[in-house]
Amino acid sequence: MDDSNSAHLIPLQDESGKQGGERPKEPWSEHTVKSIVYAGLDAIVTCFSLISSISSVHYSSVDVLVLGFANLVANGISMGFADFISTGTKKDAIEEERLVTEWDVNNQGRQQQMELMQRYQQLGMSLEDATTVVNVFSKYKDILIDEKMTTQKGMQSPNNEEKAWQNGVVTLAAFLAFGCAPLLPFVVLIPFTWSERVKFLGACVVSALALALLGIAKARIAGRSYAFSTAVTLLNGAIAAASAYLIGWLLRDVAGLED
């Protein structure tokens, strides 16, 4: 930064005692990356849980593939459409809320300034500093509106670059791509073995590896511990799959199925 532009800036209080050490890594914030990771996690857990329930009643690999892919496509379309709808609805809601805030600032300016000052004081500002900040923001109406949206309503201005249809397509593609992981052993192992148990164990291994990789990606997004995030992700998948397997096994006799 140019020294002439920063000459009148007040140093932060803790700059005088700067702490050493490596700067923490910034988490991934791109919405597309988040959609890929979370759709992938959901797809793997959902598909593997279905495979577990099918395997518990000793259906063939053909049954697993037919039901697995049918469920995968149906859920993928549902999730993609849901992401499309939710993204568009969120943007519409923020835009409507911004119109309300803009009206408040234009018609109740003094009251809005006082509310913003009180909010800054609650955050630790002195009355003098809070007054100065609000007076500066009041010279720039759009900035004041955005600040009120963020500070008082917890909303960011709508991102015009974010496309609802694009989020839906990304979610659908990620769901289909990662959801295929648990099904791969039932296709790849066909030339090598007829054992359904071996194929199911292969699905367990592939699903665990895929969940571990997405758990690491999830930790990268949230800026959390890789080990903890991976363990939680694997535990989530294990509990879901074990529950599906147990339910299928318990209801097998009720449905009149035989080994």
UniProtKB/TrEMBL annotation:
Recorded superkingdom: Eukaryota
Main function: Vacuolar Fe(2+) uptake transporter.
Family listed: Belongs to the CCC1 family.
Ranges for region Disordered: 1-28
Enzymatic reactions: Fe(2+)(in) = Fe(2+)(out)
Topology of the protein relative to the lipid bilayer: Multi-pass membrane protein
GO terms, molecular function: iron ion sequestering activity; iron ion transmembrane transporter activity; manganese ion transmembrane transporter activity
Keyword Cell membrane: no
Major localization class: membrane
Stated name of the protein: Vacuolar iron transporter
Organism: Nelumbo nucifera
One GO CC term, this protein: vacuolar membrane
